[in-house]
Design a protein that fits this description.
Blueprint: H1 23-45, H2 66-73, E1 78-84, E2 90-96, E3 106-112, H3 116-123, E4 126-132, E5 144-154, H4 157-162, E6 181-195, E7 198-203
Length: 204
């Protein structure tokens, strides 16, 4: 987690991986996270490119499976969520995944209702999530993962309970009864990754 915790409305909860990133690790990975964000923004602003296959040196479209991606996501706590603002610009903010480690194409985030990202999702549900794994002890960059998909807003307290963890009470003091609480579900349609010499696309 970063040295100074973000504001509560900037955090989500229970997505595809467990907490575990340290403040120093996030500082080191920041330049790599920017690269993943820029790639995601480029695809949001260039819809015609969304269906183009990615291959390298004769590799198939993807040498990793969705299960492989899920294992990688377990190591990454924070992602950047990109939405389209009313001005047409791309807006980004950090979101925490906090617990849903068995990624099956859906990511889950808690937020307050009265936020820019929620109003932007209502206006345009297409979003992008950018993940960057911290470098190894030897400095080798980790995997970069970009997930593109559609976001839906859930206000059902039964589903809140399914994705709730006690740590969230730091941000939402009244738990699932917190006024204005909303659950954001992002269903990924297209996953792109960059892992050393390997890169590929997985269609969910």
């Amino acid at each position: 987690m970063e040295p100074s915790p973000p504001l509560p409305h900037s955090l989500g909860a229970r997505g595809p991986c467990q907490p575990g990133a340290t403040g120093m690790a996030n500082i080191v990975v920041f330049p790599f996270l920017i690269m993943a964000i820029e790639a995601a923004v480029e695809r949001l602003t260039c819809p015609a490119r969304l269906t183009l296959p990615t291959s390298r040196k004769g590799l198939p479209m993807s040498s990793l499976t969705l299960c492989d991606i899920a294992k990688k996501l377990k190591k990454i706590d924070f992602c950047m969520m990109a939405t389209r603002a009313s001005s047409g610009a791309i807006a980004n903010r950090p979101m925490s995944n906090n617990g849903d480690v068995e990624y099956d194409g859906d990511s889950w985030f808690f937020s307050f209702e009265e936020t820019h990202k929620v109003s932007e999702i209502i206006r345009d549900p297409q979003v992008a999530l950018a993940f960057a794994e911290p470098p190894s002890l030897l400095g080798k960059p980790g995997i970069f993962i970009s997930i593109e998909g559609a976001a839906t807003l859930i206000r059902d307290k039964a589903q809140f309970q399914e994705h709730w963890v006690a740590d969230l009470e730091r941000w939402f003091a009244q738990g699932v009864e917190t006024p204005g609480l909303v659950l954001i579900k992002v269903h990924g349609d297209r996953i792109q990754y960059w892992d050393g010499e390997d890169n590929g696309v997985i269609h969910v």
